[in-house]
């Protein structure tokens, strides 16, 4: 997707996994220890790629994961995370209606900005999912598939001085006002050559307070593995 703050995403598309390769990942591996591995309780489609760039394999994998003759996972414990490609996102929502359709798994959208202009600057694929507040109106769902009645987790990477001001939080609330949602704030993990830097704890707290004041649930994803270029958004060939 070439998101400017993600070292991994800037590498471009290198290939897609098959349905079998996706399903293989949560399968238990042979253990040298006699102790059984802990069961997998939650599964997220995300990471080094965009799930909706590979919809056929991903949708088939979701069906197998949730089917009682497959891995029999509860759909509420499976999440598809996307930057928001259309029309793939519309197809995903239309086909996951529960009865007679695909399992209604959870949805997370990497939003990273509350205005179309700012999102377009840091997320190039924003040309496929723009964010004027009217776009999220239930009456306009033929243009923007996210609407009232569908719970969404919005993921937001905080970039110091770019999208982490209180007014940016207010814009985020405005853009998502018609959606039942919560927010996952992600601390930026720097990489060689980046123009961005992480937000300070003070700026993070100020941003959270604006969202809290509106009654929204806010999670914070702290950095893990960033000392070895192994954190979120850092995986890639550093040369």
Roughly how many Å apart are the termini?
Answer: 21 Å
Shape, principal axes of CA atoms: globular
The unreliable regions are: 128-145
Structural class: alpha/beta
Q: Which value, in Å, is the CA radius of gyration?
A: 18 Å
Average pLDDT level: 78
Helix proportion of residues, in percent? 10-25%
Beta-sheet strand percentage?
5-15%
For the largest beta-sheet, the strand count, sense and barrel status come to:
6 strands, parallel
Number of helices: 6
Say how many strands there are: 6
What is this structure's SSE topology?
Elements lengths: L18 H6 L18 E3 L9 H12 L11 E5 L5 H8 L10 E5 L5 H7 L29 E7 L7 H10 L5 E7 L13 H13 L4 E4 L18
Parallel strand pairs: 1-2, 2-3, 3-4, 4-5, 5-6
Helix pairs in contact: 5-6
Describe the structure.
This protein has 239 residues and is an alpha/beta fold. The protein is 23% helix and 13% strand. It contains six helices and six strands, in the order H-E-H-E-H-E-H-E-H-E-H-E. The protein has helices at 19-24, 55-66, 88-95, 116-122, 166-175, 201-213, and strands spanning 43-45, 78-82, 106-110, 152-158, 181-187, 218-221. The protein has a six-stranded parallel sheet, with helices on one face. Helix 5 (166-175) runs parallel beside helix 6. The longest helix has 13 residues, at 201-213. 30% of the residues are buried. The model is unreliable at 128-145 (pLDDT under 50).
